[in-house]
Amino acid sequence: MSRMLLAWELGAGLGHIGPFLGLAPRLLERGHELHMAVREIAGACRAVGGLPVAVHQAPLCLNTYGGLQEPPLNYAEILMRYGYLDVAMLRAMLAAWISLLRATRADMVIADHAPTALLAARVLNLPCAVIGSPFSVPPALHPTPNMRGWLDVPPARLMDSDTKVLATINAVLPAGSRPVTAIHQIFDQAAEFFMGVPETDCYGPRASSTYLGLAVPGTGAATPNWPEGAGPRVFAYLHADYPHLSAVVRALAASGARVISFVGSEKKLQEHFQKPGMVTVTDLVDMRQVLAEADLCITHGMGTTLAAVGAGVPLLMLPKHLENHLFALALQQAGVGKAVHPDEASPDIDAALGSLFRDDGYARSAQALAERYREPSVGTIAALTVARMEALAASPQEKHA
Question: Which CB contacts under 8 angstroms, 24+ apart, belong to 287-292?
Fold first, then answer.
């Protein structure tokens, strides 16, 4: 039996604990003790439910730093916004993570967007793994690359940003620690388990990584009937704060599509979709059934998008921030859908929908990608992932005090 700390430090949304919840039942069944240190404890406690997982508040940087160049262009510039230019703050965060690892007597760290937890594991010589979106693990390049390829970025800026962050990291490492000479070294000792497949990695395929496949989760039990008619069937999972929500609904109404929209408890969403040919659902839907019948999926984030690709359904991807935009661009390059840039002031949703409805090449590409990764099954990949993590946790290490 091993004790494992599941760590989520950066990034918004409970999607960051989704990979943990996928592994937790299997790890618990095999007798492991699980601790989860998370950015948002209230939602995490609800999500964990009755599972015997101890939930802790993750050590965080809550400061806001002015004077930083906008927008952040590489991974180092993201870290700058979370204390990685502030020696006192980073020293405190690192000490807190080290204390948490010692208090839980963790044998291993499994991280989703948790660089300081990985630094603590590095200091304590603990085995570790990363799981989740490939975005949170920069490629093994120095300096970390420009994430906004549509902008012309001077190489000197990227190097300068990495150099400043590295200076802060090395200033807080305990005496005798191995220095960090490139940002990617934070992650180099970690086994990599990425959601998706090589084609969905925003940095490009990585030979050393394990990809967890195209999951089509049965997240709920609701099986709504499609509206009557002959138009294409569209499953929509959108957020009320999406700035172009009204334009999306208008375009769908004008297209004659038949729409099932998951709205949850969002009254604003319910109001938007109260139109002929549209059905709203408040309970979690059976994704397998709905996507098996859909002709198109419209969504913002990674989980629903991967489920749609796994079902061979083309996509209109409406990312709200950089991480999901890079993910959407990778899928657009694979030919399975179209992406709308989150910074575009007035996107032409009608044209994007029309293109997706007219050109069956998107559906063929989505079906081909789904078929390519039909085997091994997601269940088999999960079992192999758990086995590898068990082997890592049991590997000989110089144990911390």
Answer: 287/216, 287/217, 287/218, 287/219, 287/220, 288/216, 288/217, 288/218, 289/223, 290/223, 290/224, 290/235, 290/260, 291/216, 291/235
